[in-house]
Design a protein that fits this description.
Length: 326
């Protein structure tokens, strides 16, 4: 557990035992970051901060969708960030926040065992670096929360940008006809589509959470602009992910149309071959045993049968040509 006391001029590191005293001070902001859940984290949230039991439970358990709960003296927010896993799977990395009058608590996870702690700490480490370098000096909990959520939207933007590059690569392969293994190519396209759909879903759900916070003005006038900015960020990221998803779906439709056209042409050609050979096969099966035998061959009948076969084949080919089948 990382505990820091932020003032306009300094950053102080403290222990858990000092939390009660820090919360009584009015000259700074308390930031408590909980990387992994344990008994001490539950005790601090329940006994020191006296947070609602249901909110504490939500930190302990995994949440499938973002949410916001507004209490008398703090706001509880659950968000998700994307982390690309194996075979195109997108992990939902959970970040919980308790935004109080003079404190911010960030709780990470729980998350899939395939996700590393470094992946879960991206937003916090980015904001911590800005604070330590002096580029950010938050004077309120909602300002610090805004910085962390902005880092989360930056992660969503990077995720969408990486998938966009993949969309371009796939589109170039489709238009150039360099597809390679068709099954593998389709799998790549659908993996990319899944990634964009995940990003779009995260942005849409998170936008609704902050839209609700903007509607009820949880931070009053002083923090309203920060909430509205986050709403705008999620709106624009959702639009970007939607646009790239539509573009990829257009590429998939183009690929499917080209493949279906090739299959149709192949089927027509096979139909022509079948139409030409089927009557010949039927005629030869009937006459063959009577024209060519082991003792002697009826040459006149054989030539007549061959001529009939040639005429039938020519007539069928001319008819197929007039139909435009080849």
């Amino acid at each position: 557990m990382d505990i820091r006391f932020l003032t306009p001029t300094a950053i102080e590191q403290h222990s858990v035992d000092e939390l009660t005293a820090l919360l009584g001070r009015n000259d700074g902001l308390v930031w408590v970051d909980i990387p992994t859940w344990d008994a001490e984290a539950e005790r601090v949230l329940a006994d020191v901060f006296k947070l609602h039991p249901l909110a504490v439970r939500d930190c302990r358990e995994r949440n499938t969708v973002p949410k916001v709960h507004v209490y008398a003296d703090h706001v509880f927010v659950v968000l998700h960030a994307p982390e690309l896993g194996a075979r195109g799977h997108v992990h939902y990395v959970e970040l919980d926040q308790f935004i109080g009058r003079n404190y911010l608590i960030t709780v990470h996870g729980p998350w899939n065992v395939a996700v590393s702690l470094d992946a879960a700490m991206v937003e916090v480490r980015a904001v911590r670096g800005r604070i330590e370098s002096g580029r950010l000096r938050p004077t309120s909990a909602y300002r610090l929360s805004h910085a962390i959520v902005s880092a989360l939207t930056a992660r969503l933007r990077d995720h969408t940008a990486a998938l966009t590059r993949e969309v371009w690569r796939l589109e170039q392969r489709v238009t150039a006809g360099q597809l390679g293994d068709p099954e593998q190519f389709l799998e790549e396209m659908f993996r990319t589509r899944h990634g964009l759909l995940s990003a779009r879903t995260m942005c849409a759900l998170s936008r609704e959470v902050y839209g609700r916070m903007a509607t009820i003005a949880v931070f009053q006038e002083a923090g309203q602009s920060y909430i509205e900015d986050i709403v705008d960020q999620f709106d624009r990221l959702r639009a970007m992910a939607d646009a790239q998803k539509d573009y990829l779906e257009g590429t998939i439709e183009f690929y499917q149309a080209r493949t279906n056209t090739k299959m149709t042409i192949a089927a027509e050609r096979l139909a022509v071959i079948a139409a030409v050979t089927l009557p010949i096969t039927a005629l030869s099966s009937i006459l063959g045993m009577n024209v060519i035998v082991s003792e002697s061959t009826h040459l006149e009948l054989l030539l007549t049968a061959l001529l009939i076969m040639l005429v039938m084949s020519t007539a069928l080919l001319v008819w197929a040509r007039r139909k435009g089948w080849w």
